[in-house]
Amino acid sequence: MEDKEKIAIKALDYVENNSVVGLGTGSTANYFIKHLSRRIDQENLNISVVASSTASEIEANKYSLNLLGFDTLEGLDLYVDGADEISPQLDLLKGKGYDLVKEKLLAQSADKFIVIADSSKKVKFIGENNLIPIEVLKDSWRLTKNLLDQLGNGDLRKNAKGDAYSISSAGNYIFDYKFKEKNIKLLHDSLLVIPGVAEIGIFHNIADNALIINNGDIEIISLNK
Ligand code: 5RP
Question: Does this model's pTM top 0.90?
Answer without folding.
Answer: yes
